[in-house]
Specification:
Helix content of chain B: 40-55%
Strand content of chain A: 5-15%
Oligomer: heterodimer
Radius of gyration of chain B: 19 Å
Strand order of the largest sheet of chain A: 8-7-9-1-14-17-6-18
Helix content of chain A: 25-40%
Number of strands of chain B: 2
Largest sheet of chain A: 8 strands, mixed
Order of helices and strands of chain B: HHHEEHHHHHH
Largest sheet of chain B: 2 strands, antiparallel
Number of helices of chain B: 9
Number of strands of chain A: 21
Strand order of the largest sheet of chain B: 1-2
Strand content of chain B: under 5%
Distance between the termini of chain B: 7 Å
Structural class of chain A: alpha/beta
Chain lengths: ~500, ~210
């Protein structure tokens, strides 16, 4: 534990530096952050619908299970072993009843990033999508109900304009936690449409015909300092918490955001007929071409646009945590139109309801969606590795990708069926990818008789068939690997989940 | 609007105070509401109100990048809306987004720029910038005062107080003294006066 942590730890009991600075202006928070430890970045890559480890890194061969015919054990030749991990590379002419062929690959990712991959088993407490999603990020209220993203924003986000950004929509992975002591800046900020959201980061730039900026700022001061405080409306209702909150945002956070020219830095698009930036006095990000090369479908695939913006948010020091992931809508390859005589190879990029389409065709959906998740993670890692953070360390050296999912999928199948549907199952696990995690490891194991996962010793990692891992334990392991002090939280020391 | 009944209620409350307190005079009222419940207008309501206040059709009032509706396409969720069908966002944000006041300022500025440009293009039907005199000449104080009253009448449906009038007239002096081109000073002042009133707490809450 270094001196920074010691100072923070002394504050104890959740009364952290972040909490002390909760009401402090952005500049004061930024100054405090400059004296603190270098940030760690958390990327929550959500896998809506149940990303099943039994269909990926903990797959079981038919020859290994005495009940293989009735359980989701894979034909031997489909299961690869790479280090401690398994991988399934699957080709199919259809996704259940949908005649859409695809080729999905897991092994490439494992070969490339296996040393940073850590798979942990976990048994959840709800098979309700929304509740399970929430618990995957708050550990079932493991630490006062604060989410992983809030914990990271609170610890490392003081000097960042928008520490916690939520890019994925319509899931419980972005719900606020229930810890009311968290300062406002640590809450997730929703960026619902990555392509246009940067326009909300500057009240002036790009408004053609507007007076000079200094006059605009003078008008803001006139409003804030004279017109508003003097109005009868304000004198009557100015004590409203909503009005006070609005004033706080208007005067403090606004400056922290606008001062960084984020409307330019985070603009994914180049000038084009669809996004006529130049005509509006705007331009695209200096790193725009780089992220567009990495995510070439950014203009129509929601996940690619989220991932592209996520990288820019981290790279430009805007955020310390971003949450992204596939949503509920089906996504097709660009140019594909339905009702034109069938779908071609790889035309379905995202199955309807994402992983949850496993209800119809478990193996095919798991293959397509894991492929999508891993490709997104690979490109993000590659981008983060390509940018130096400081002292020869890349952004990736400070980062963690947590593939959050709400539950697993049931294990049964009709006799030897290749295509079959599955339900929701509490028992599963999680994938964590990070140089800070205990990479190259599968922590826990699978019972070949049931294909249910079992746990591990938190200190040594020794597999333990007599236990399962709780949401709280995995939550603790993640915050600890991220170097977040948790005095008084009562979390289990998950020593084996961190590298050092 | 709910605002007016609330102010009336506050005034009635003040009238009910003991005589000694009431004798303090009209400058002391209204007093703090004992239960200050107000709501922030969502972007749709805000733009509908501005559309009516400034006589700009709703479909033309605010376009980002020349083509995206400021609320429906650009800032729907940030400005308190929902989008169940496409985004799966079924409820407005629990608390205003960090970027909401920025987006709202941007919308207000864009709307006011549009209004003033329309006034200049069609002086006969001007709404805010009316009868300023020949281009490049300084308007009279009476015109400045009338214009301030016009801003408040249009946007807040009430008279400007003497203090508000003085503050905006003072702001005119600041704009006049700025480095902006002489023939744009009046335009700039009306635009920014409109912005300041349109983005005031009184106009964005109800």
């Amino acid at each position: 534990m270094n001196s920074h942590w010691s100072r923070r730890t002394l504050l104890g009991g959740g009364f952290s530096l972040g909490a002390m600075l909760a009401g402090a202006p952005f500049a004061a928070r930024a100054q405090a952050a400059a004296n603190g430890p270098p940030p760690k970045f958390l990327i929550v890559l959500s896998a809506f619908g149940g990303a099943n480890l039994i269909d990926s890194f903990m797959a079981v061969r038919e020859s290994e299970s005495p009940n293989a015919a009735q359980l989701n054990a894979y034909p031997n030749d489909l299961v690869q072993t790479i280090g401690e991990f398994r991988a399934i590379d699957l080709k199919s002419k259809a996704i259940g009843a949908i005649p859409a062929s695809f080729t999905a690959n897991q092994s490439n990712f494992v070969k490339k990033h296996g040393s940073d991959m850590m798979v942990v088993t976990r048994t959840g407490s709800s098979v309700n999508h929304f509740v399970g999603q929430q618990r995957s990020i708050n550990g079932n209220a493991a630490w006062k109900g604060r989410t992983l993203q809030e914990a990271v924003a609170l610890t490392y986000g003081q000097g960042h304009a928008i520490p916690n950004v939520h890019l994925v929509n319509g899931t419980g992975f972005t719900e606020h936690g229930t810890d009311k002591s968290i300062p406002t800046y640590a809450f997730g900020e929703r960026a619902p449409s990555p392509n246009l959201w940067p326009l909300s980061l500057d009240g002036y730039k790009g408004v053609r015909g507007a007076p000079q900026r200094d006059l605009f700022e003078a008008a803001r001061r006139l409003r804030n300092d004279q017109l508003d405080p003097g109005s009868d409306f304000f004198r009557t209702f100015g004590q409203s918490e909503k009005v006070k909150h609005w004033q706080g945002l208007r005067e403090d956070s606004l400056r922290g955001v606008e001062a960084q020219d984020l409307i330019t830095k985070l603009m994914l698009f180049p000038d084009s007929p669809k996004m006529p930036l130049t005509a509006s006095g705007l331009k695209g990000s200096d790193l725009g071409q780089k992220v567009r090369d990495a995510f070439p479908n950014y203009d129509f695939d929601p996940l690619e646009s989220q991932a592209a913006l996520a990288f820019l948010l981290l790279r430009y020091g805007v955020s310390v945590t971003v949450t992204l992931g596939p949503e509920g809508a089906a996504v097709f390859k660009k140019g594909v139109t339905l009702g034109q005589g069938g779908l071609g190879e790889g035309d379905i990029v995202n199955t309807p309801i994402s992983f949850d389409f496993s209800h119809q065709a478990n193996r095919e959906v798991q293959a397509v969606m894991w492929d999508r998740i891993l490709k997104t993670a690979d490109r993000l890692i590659t981008l983060l590795k390509s940018e130096e953070y400081a002292e020869g360390k890349s952004y990736w050296d400070h980062s963690m990708i947590y593939v959050a999912t709400e539950f697993g999928r049931t294990r049964k199948r009709p006799d030897n069926a290749m295509t079959f549907g599955t339900g929701h199952e509490l028992n599963n696990g999680a994938l964590i990818i990070s140089p800070m995690a205990n990479g190259g490891r599968v922590l826990g194991g699978v019972d070949p008789e049931t294909l249910m996962t079992y746990g591990f010793d938190p200190a040594t990692g020794r597999p333990d068939k007599g236990r399962t891992m709780t949401e709280s334990e995995i939550y603790g392991g993640i915050v600890q690997a991220l170097g977040i002090p948790t005095p008084g939280a009562g979390l289990t020391d998950m020593r084996v989940m961190r590298r050092t | 609007m709910i605002r007016h009944p609330l102010i009336v209620l506050a005034a009635l409350f003040a009238l009910a105070l003991p005589a000694a307190a009431a004798a303090a005079g009209p400058s002391e009222v209204p007093r703090n509401s004992l239960d200050p419940r107000v709501k922030l207008k969502d972007g749709d309501r805000y733009l509908r109100d501005l559309s009516a206040q400034l006589e700009i059709p709703r479909e033309e009032i605010c376009k980002e990048l020349l083509q995206y509706d400021c609320f429906r396409d650009a800032f729907r969720i940030v400005l308190g809306g929902v989008d169940a069908a496409d985004l799966g966002v079924n409820e407005p944000l629990e608390q205003e987004a960090l970027t909401a006041p920025i987006a709202l300022d941007r919308v207000a500025l864009r709307v006011c720029v549009t209004r003033v440009e329309r006034d200049l293009a069609d002086p006969k039907h001007a709404v805010l910038l009316r009868g300023a005199g020949p281009k490049g000449t300084s308007p009279s104080p009476a015109w400045v005062k009338r214009t301030v009253q016009g801003l408040y009448d249009r946007i807040l449906a009430r008279d400007a107080t003497p203090a508000e009038t003085a503050q905006l007239m003072g702001f005119y002096q600041k704009v006049s003294a700025s480095a902006s081109p002489a023939d744009t000073k009046v335009k700039d002042w009306v635009t920014l006066g409109c912005f300041a009133v349109a983005s005031s707490v009184e106009n964005v809450f109800y």
